[in-house]
Amino acid sequence: MAQLCHSLLFLLLLSAFCITGATGRASHPSSRARAFVVEQCQATRYPELCVQCLSNHANASAQSQQQLAQYALAMSLARACYTRAYVTKVAAQLKQTKAKEYQAVKDCLDQINDSVGQLSQSINELQRINHDGEGNFLWHTSNVQMWLSTVLTEAMTCIDGFSGHAVGGKVRATIKAKVLNVAHMTSNALALFNRFVAIHRATRSKAQP
């Protein structure tokens, strides 16, 4: 899992501006490709964040809902890995001196570790859709939807877990912001995945006699 996170360094660089409320502009994708990304992102809960994060991928997306969903999942995983590294560092600093604060951060870290695994599984599962045939489509899609929904739940569990704990205000705010960013990106990835699933089903339905 750590090796996978290391391999996502390039995506981390691309996603550095993918934070809620960011105003940074992406590079210059073709107008047609960017229009495709903007259109797809309208199905998400955080469309501005979606466009900010995915515009750099617009030229390579080939206007494919599946590829865009795949990339959105990879970006979410990259941010989750980045967040895990930060929370791991904080936990190590607190472990020897502040037991109560450490436990709150450790509980959050456990949630993030689970999220990294579930996002990784989701990426692999989406890739298998192309190889296992139409008969397993429902199985793969339901797995991805379940795992991504769990990531969202775990993010909120992490944030709620700081209530009543005297973790330093700046540290607590930073962790919450990073975890919330992962949740927003994952929410967008789930929406894009659901859009791909809906379009795929509609296309298959029309193709049937």
From TrEMBL:
Gene3D superfamilies: Invertase/pectin methylesterase inhibitor family protein
Species, as recorded: Actinidia rufa
Compartments it resides in: Secreted, Extracellular space, Apoplast
Stated family: Belongs to the PMEI family.
Alphabetical list of SUPFAM superfamilies matching this protein: Plant invertase/pectin methylesterase inhibitor (SSF101148)
Domain Pectinesterase inhibitor: 32-192
PANTHER family in UniProt: PECTINESTERASE INHIBITOR-LIKE, PLANT INVERTASE_PECTIN METHYLESTERASE INHIBITOR
Signal sequence, start to end: 1-24
Keyword Iron recorded: no
GO cellular component assignments: apoplast
Protein name: Pectinesterase inhibitor domain-containing protein
Pfam families: PMEI
InterPro entries: Invertase/methylesterase_inhib (IPR035513), Pectinesterase_inhib_dom (IPR006501), PME_Inhibitor (IPR051955)
UniProt keyword terms in alphabetical order: Apoplast, Disulfide bond, Secreted, Signal
GO terms of molecular function: enzyme inhibitor activity
Main localisation: secreted
